[in-house]
Amino acid sequence: MSTQHLPEHPDFLWRNPEPKSSYDAVIVGGGGHGLATAYFLAKNHGMTNIAVLEKGWLAGGNMARNTTIIRSNYLWDESAAIYEHALKLWEILPEELEYDFLFSQRGVMNLAHTLGDVRESIRRVGANKLNGVDAEWLDPQQVKELCPILNIRDNIRYPVMGATYQPRAGIAKHDHVAWAFARKCDEMGVDIIQNCEVTGFLKDGDRVVGVKTNRGTINTEKVGLCAAGHSSVLAEMAGFQLPIQSHPLQALVSELHEPVHPTVVMSNHVHVYVSQAHKGELVMGAGVDSYNGYGQRGSFHVIEQQMAAAVELFPIFARAHVLRTWGGIVDTTLDASPIVGLTPVENMFVNCGWGTGGFKGTPAAGMTFAHTIATGTPHRLNKPFSLERFETGALIDEHGAAAVAH
Amino acid sequence: MLLIPCPNCGPRDETEFHYGGQAHVPYPENPNELTDTEWSRYLFYRENPKGIFAERWVHSTGCRQWFNMLRDTVSYDIQAVYPMGTRRPDLAADPAVEAGTASTAADSTTTGTAAPSLSATSLAASPTRTAPEGATK
C-alpha cells in the first residue's frame, strides 16, 4: 500500500529507432499484449529482427486505462488453463524481467448478491479447484473479516450473500509492466516504433508480405495483430472480418487516501469493481457502454450507476472525491472469450477479443501468441480460442465469470 | 450521455433507450440452406466501423418504438434517424441530409412502406465533427 515506494522513473528504457525496410515479423500494437508477444518471440523463439508498431505512444491505450486486476478464476477449462498460466507467469515475471512492477497478490473477491449468484459462485469455486486454481467460498462474515469496509448488512437493495475468493489474485502497476517488457524487448534487439500508424497491408495473393505505415512501407514475413479495440479496423484493411464489437469501457479513481481497502472486490450484480492502488487512489471500474464506440469516452450515467453501487457496498466512499474518469475501447466477442490464432490471411495472426479483461491475460497472450506467430500453428493453450469456434459452435461462454466485471 | 432524437417523442436522454446493435441484418431467407460459415456470419459477425454506423435503438421508456440511426462511432455525432424497414440514407448523396435541413418530405431512400411521420431526418447541424449538445465529451 502507500508504505511501499514506487520505482523511480528511469531515463530511457528503450531506443526510439527509425523503422527498417524489413523485419522477420511485425507486431501491430504497442500495448501490453503486443510487447509481451515481442518479448516471448525474442526470448522463446530467438526472433529478434522484429518490430512493434504503435500508432500513439507505448502502452497508451487500454494498457494505461485498465483497472489492473489479475485473476484466473474462470469457469471453463479452456479459460482456466490460459488465465491460470498467465497468473503463474505474473508470479515469476518481476524476477525474469528484473523489474518490480508491484505485483501484489492481495486476493480478489467476487461478491454474490442473489441466490443465482450464490449458485454460480459455488459452482465456479468447484470448477476452479478441479482446474488447480485456488478458490474459496466465503460467507458474509468471512467477507467482512477480509474487507472490513464492506457493508454486509441487509439494509441495501442487494445485500452481500457471500463471495468467491482467489487469494493468489491481485493487481500490478500496469505502466511499469509495459515498461518492463519494453526494456527487455529493446535489450534483445526488438525495434519499438512509436507514432507509427498502420495504414494498410501488402499482400501477395492471400499472403501478407508487408505493412504500409505513415512512416513508410515495411516488408515482413509475418504480421501479428494486437490492436484490441481497433482490431476490426486492421482486419478490414487486411481483407477479413472479426466477430468483434468495440465498446467504450470506463473507469475512475478517487483522490489519494490512507490504506482502507486491503483486497480487490468485484461485484457483477451491482456492477462495480474496486481496489486501492499502491499510491492510495481508489480505483473503480464500470461496465461497458451499450453502444459501439471508438471515442475512448462513455456516457455519464454508466459512471453514476457504478458510483451508486460502490457507495452502497462501501459506505465510507460517500465522502471520497472523484479525481478523474476515463474510457478505453474494448474489443468484445459474443462469448466473452478472446480470439487468438490464425486468420484467413496467410502469415497474418490475430490476438484480440480480450474485451474488458485483457490486462490479466497479458503474459499468457504474449507467450502463446508468440508461439503461434513463430511456428504458424496454435499453441496448446490458445487453440480453443481460434476464430473457427464461431463456425464450429465450440464457444467458450464466460459471460458468468467474465462478461461484466474485470 | 447521448441526447437521442426519438422520431416520435423528440430529443430524450440516452437512459430512456436501449441499444439494438447493427441495423439492416435480415434473418436469412432459407436458414436450412446456409453453410456453417454463412450461418456464423449471420449469428456472430456484425460490422464494427470506426465512423458512421447504422444501428437500431428502441425508446423503451417512451413510445416503445424501434428506429434506425446513423451515428459516428468516434465523435458520437448522430447524423440521421430513419424508420425501421427503410434503406439507409446516403449522407453524401442526399444534399438535404448533408446540409442539415430536416427533411419532411418522403425521403427518396425510403421504400414507401414506413409511416409518413417517420421520414429520415437529418441531425447534422454542421459539417464539423464536434459532439452534439448533450453528448458525452
Question: Can you put this structure into words, describing what you see?
Answer:
The complex is a heterodimer of chains A (about 400) and B (about 140). With about 400 residues, chain A is of the alpha/beta class. Chain A is about 30% helix and about 25% strand. Chain A has 10 helices and 18 strands. In chain A, strands 1, 2, 8, 9, 10, 11, 17 and 18 form an 8-stranded mixed beta sheet that branches. In chain A, helix 1 crosses helix 8 (about 360-375) and helix 2 (about 75-95) packs across helix 8. Chain A is globular and about 65 Å long. The relative contact order of chain A is 0.20. Chain B has helices at about 35-45, 95-100, and strands at about 5, 10-15, 20, 50-60, 65-70, 80, 120. In chain B, about 30% of the residues are buried. Mean pLDDT of chain B is about 80; it is low at about 100-120 and about 125-135. A 5-stranded antiparallel beta sheet of chain B has the order 3-4-5-6-7. A two-stranded antiparallel ribbon of chain B has the order 1-2. Chain B is of the alpha+beta class and about 140 residues long. In chain B, strand 1 (about 5) and strand 2 (about 10-15) form a beta hairpin. Chain B is built from 2 helices and 7 strands. The longest helix of chain B is centred in the N-terminal third of the chain and has 9 residues, at about 35-45. At the A-B interface, helix 9 of A face strand 3 and helix 1 of B.
Helix amount of chain A: 25-40%
Sequence of strands across the biggest β-sheet of chain B: 3-4-5-6-7
Beta-strand residue fraction of chain A? 25-35%
Number of helices of chain A: 10
The mean pLDDT of chain B is 79
C-alpha geometry of chain B:
globular
In whole angstroms, the N-to-C terminal distance of chain B is: 9 Å
Helix/sheet category of chain A: alpha/beta
Helix content of chain B: 10-25%
